[in-house]
Design goal:
By secondary structure, this protein is mainly alpha-helical. The protein is 73% helix and 0% strand. The chain is globular and about 55 Å long. This is TLC domain-containing protein.
Length: 251
Amino acid sequence: MFLVNCALILMGLVVYQLLNRCLHKTVKHFNPDFYAELELDRYHKLAPYFVFPLGILLTLFTTPICLLAYHETPSATDTFGLDRPFTANGKVCLSSRAALWISEMPLLSYSPEYIAHHILSLGSLVLVMISKSPRQPIYLIYAGLVTELFSDTVALLRLHGRNAANSAPFRRAMLANVLSMISLRIIPVIAYTATMPETRPYYAGGIALYCFYLARLTFLQLGTLGYHKMRLGRAGIAAQSDKNSAKSKSA
């Protein structure tokens, strides 16, 4: 099983690199002036720019697969400590997310918070794999990452010079991201956890941390939109709220 999962992750890494190269070549061919502008700052613009359209594309691929994995997993046997095989959709759901986060880290290395987020996301995935924890919650969380369609759009608009003060599409995308984080990520995982017949301290702690992280992103983005004037921590942290990530991803 371990070798199968590693093979799927390696395949995902290869596919990501191929798609990234194709996207670079396409933009360079059809819009050389814009590509040249990105090349002026390879670290902060060229490398991360293509993360976001690739994130949108791969989210469209992984979301239905993770939903299928959630529905295919029987609740009766999805308990702590029970060793059971993964479904095909379950393997693809988890492996594709792992490959995405691993691939993104060098491209987003300008942001310590992105790196920390991705490492924690991968760590939580490993914990679920080795601790024989219920899998439905993580499938539900990964399916909820459909919200990255909005957060990636916000990040792209920002790289094009848009912000909450000068762009209505930016404001709409960010507000949609806030509402979707609450309705598709925070509420579902809390509701699911509340109905579980049993839990474990590490699981409850992971879910609490996940919800706290999303609540923090929601608060920061509402501040960016002007709904409040309070600030949490350093002002620079707000940049991470654009992408959520999610690339918040994972408990």
